[in-house]
Amino acid sequence: ISMFRPDYDRLIELASKMPSDCKLFSREINPNHSRLYGRICNTDYVSVDSYYDESLSGYFGIDIFPLEAVPSKVREYAKFSKKIRLLRRMFIFANSALFKGKSFLRAYILKPLPIIICKIIGADRIYKAFMKEVRSRDYDSAECIALVTGQYTENERYPKDKYYDLIRIGFEGLNLPAIRSYDPYLKLLYGDYMKY
């Protein structure tokens, strides 16, 4: 789920008022949270993810991605995306378990050195650098916003006014808000997404 940054910040403030079987995990609430976005979890169920060094957010839940103010000019956004992508990758490495991966090559040859270097730098230091870059723009006056904690950073930039133009769409028996221009947005991210 994506959420406008001001709404995401309000969610963080209200986290202590959630029902007892639900919990919001985020770096803002718990400095050991191993993701750059929040996650609302049902604490009655636990999932195991062996790729991360984490004990706090291993619950089934829904990821909440804040939409951030980003540069509206293409070149500025490209430079911003490159920096964000590097910091995001470093943060992931800093929170990754050593000698875990989908293949022997990744687990024992490609990933250990970056993981060790990023653990030495520290997840907290990397997180602060990430947030300093992300928060360097005023949300209210921004022309474009993007979900910068996801994997599609380069394609995520979208006019803020189009994000705020919402409609209701039925999904799994629910009536949920979605951006009116969801089709061009999804094509921007995934190409011909209806093909699959």
Q: Any overview of this molecule?
A:
It is a single chain. By secondary structure, the protein is α+β, with helices and mostly antiparallel strands. The protein contains eight helices and eight strands; from the N terminus they run βαβββααααβαβαββα. Strands 1, 2, 3, 4, 5 and 6 form a six-stranded mixed β-sheet that branches. The protein has a two-stranded antiparallel sheet with strand order 7-8. Helix 2 (74-94) crosses helix 4 (112-121). The longest helix has 21 residues, at 74-94. It is globular and about 45 Å long. The model has no long low-confidence stretch (mean pLDDT 87).
User: What is the approximate shape?
Assistant: globular
Q: How many individual helices?
A: 8
Question: Any low-confidence stretches, pLDDT <50, length ≥5?
Answer: none
Order of helices and strands: EHEEEHHHHEHEHEEH
Mean pLDDT: 87
Radius of gyration: 18 Å
Main β sheet profile = 6 strands, mixed
**Proportion of residues in helical segments:** 25-40%
Beta fraction:
15-25%
* Broad structural category: alpha+beta
